[in-house]
Specification:
Distance between the termini: 79 Å
Oligomer: single chain
Strand order of the largest sheet: 2-1-10-8-6-5-3-4
Helix content: 10-25%
Radius of gyration: 21 Å
Shape: globular
Number of strands: 10
Largest sheet: 8 strands, mixed
Order of helices and strands: HEEHHEEEEEEHEE
Mean pLDDT: 80
Strand content: 25-35%
């Protein structure tokens, strides 16, 4: 009787460990895409999925939101932790920050944030990476699907991965090195 109880206990523990292990295996990192502009930010753009292990870029064009990245859409512009302008007649689908010190405003409740699908973040120098974005702490971004980071310096996937914290794995992250004009 005592052995049967121990056996049942061990089977239960092994089952729990297997379930936890399987859950960790299925946990995914965010997809990070490096965008390379061949003729400026509005020119032709190529992408490299930095998480793509099979070497096949077939799905990249279906994931990259070119319309959100490069066309004029209703946008919220933020600078110095304040909303400086909202454009367009419809609800904004884009939010652009021109500095890495404006993340506190994203933690406040604002009905304008609900329709935002893409965050565009401008990093002006290497020290901006120290002001990481904790996506779990921003409020009201119920439709957020993409984060786009423009680096005005040489940046790497590892730096971007460290800069973006606690993002939902379904959010795609794009980064691009931009030469200031």
């Amino acid at each position: 009787m005592k052995n049967k109880a121990h056996l049942t206990h061990y089977i239960f523990l092994i089952t729990c460990l297997l379930l936890v292990s399987i859950q960790q295996i299925h946990a995914q990192d965010n997809k990070i895409f490096e965008l390379k502009s061949e003729s400026g930010i509005h020119g032709s753009t190529t992408s490299k999925n930095t998480n793509d292990n099979d070497g096949n870029d077939d799905d990249d064009d279906n994931i990259i939101p070119y319309q959100l990245l490069y066309s004029l859409k209703p946008t919220i512009y933020i600078k110095n932790n304040s909303i400086i302008k909202v454009t367009g007649p419809n609800k904004p689908v884009s939010l652009t920050t021109s500095d890495a010190n404006s993340f506190n405003i994203l933690k406040t409740e604002n009905p304008l944030f609900d329709s935002v699908q893409i965050l565009k973040i401008q990093l002006n120098d290497l020290s901006d990476l120290n002001n990481y974005l904790d996506v779990s702490s921003i409020n009201g971004f119920n439709n957020l699907k993409h984060i786009y980071i423009m680096c005005y310096f040489k940046c790497t996937e590892n730096q971007i991965r460290a800069f973006i914290k606690n993002a939902n794995p379904e959010i795609n992250i794009y980064f691009e090195q931009v030469n200031p004009s």
